[in-house]
Write a structure and sequence with these properties.
alpha+beta; two-stranded antiparallel ribbon; 2 helices
Protein backbone atom coordinates (compact mmCIF):
# COMPACT_ATOMS: atom_id res chain seq x y z
CA UNK A 1 0.00 0.00 0.00
CA UNK A 2 1.20 3.48 -0.84
CA UNK A 3 -0.06 6.44 1.20
CA UNK A 4 -0.05 10.00 -0.11
CA UNK A 5 -0.80 12.73 2.43
CA UNK A 6 -1.30 16.40 1.70
CA UNK A 7 -1.48 18.48 4.89
CA UNK A 8 -0.79 21.96 6.14
CA UNK A 9 -3.49 23.48 3.99
CA UNK A 10 -5.72 26.36 5.01
CA UNK A 11 -7.90 25.71 8.07
CA UNK A 12 -6.15 22.40 8.84
CA UNK A 13 -7.40 20.60 5.75
CA UNK A 14 -5.81 17.22 5.08
CA UNK A 15 -6.20 14.89 2.10
CA UNK A 16 -5.03 11.28 2.31
CA UNK A 17 -5.00 8.86 -0.62
CA UNK A 18 -4.23 5.15 -0.56
CA UNK A 19 -3.14 3.03 -3.51
CA UNK A 20 -3.36 -0.74 -3.09
CA UNK A 21 -1.17 -2.64 -5.53
CA UNK A 22 -2.90 -5.81 -6.64
CA UNK A 23 -6.16 -4.94 -4.90
CA UNK A 24 -9.49 -5.59 -6.57
CA UNK A 25 -12.92 -4.01 -6.30
CA UNK A 26 -13.62 -4.90 -2.68
CA UNK A 27 -13.31 -3.23 0.73
CA UNK A 28 -9.70 -3.84 1.85
CA UNK A 29 -9.64 -5.80 5.09
CA UNK A 30 -13.14 -7.13 4.48
CA UNK A 31 -14.59 -10.37 3.25
CA UNK A 32 -14.03 -11.17 -0.43
CA UNK A 33 -17.05 -10.41 -2.64
CA UNK A 34 -17.82 -12.60 -5.63
CA UNK A 35 -15.05 -14.53 -7.31
CA UNK A 36 -11.46 -13.43 -7.75
CA UNK A 37 -12.00 -13.53 -11.52
CA UNK A 38 -14.91 -11.07 -11.20
CA UNK A 39 -13.66 -8.76 -8.45
CA UNK A 40 -9.91 -9.27 -8.19
CA UNK A 41 -8.05 -9.92 -4.96
CA UNK A 42 -9.31 -8.52 -1.65
CA UNK A 43 -6.37 -6.85 0.08
CA UNK A 44 -5.84 -7.74 3.73
CA UNK A 45 -2.98 -5.22 4.18
CA UNK A 46 -5.16 -2.94 6.31
CA UNK A 47 -8.69 -2.50 7.63
CA UNK A 48 -10.49 0.19 5.65
CA UNK A 49 -12.97 0.90 8.44
CA UNK A 50 -10.15 1.56 10.90
CA UNK A 51 -8.38 3.89 8.43
CA UNK A 52 -11.54 5.88 7.80
CA UNK A 53 -12.36 6.15 11.51
CA UNK A 54 -8.79 7.23 12.31
CA UNK A 55 -9.03 10.00 9.70
CA UNK A 56 -12.45 11.19 10.88
CA UNK A 57 -11.37 11.05 14.52
CA UNK A 58 -8.47 13.42 13.75
CA UNK A 59 -10.84 15.84 12.01
CA UNK A 60 -13.78 16.05 14.38
CA UNK A 61 -15.73 19.28 14.01
CA UNK A 62 -15.39 21.69 16.89
CA UNK A 63 -18.43 23.02 18.71
CA UNK A 64 -19.58 26.48 17.70
CA UNK A 65 -18.69 29.02 20.41
Amino acid sequence: MTTLTYAGCASGTEVVGYAVKGGGHAWPGGEPIGTTEEMGMTSQQFDTGELIWSFLDRHRPTAQQ
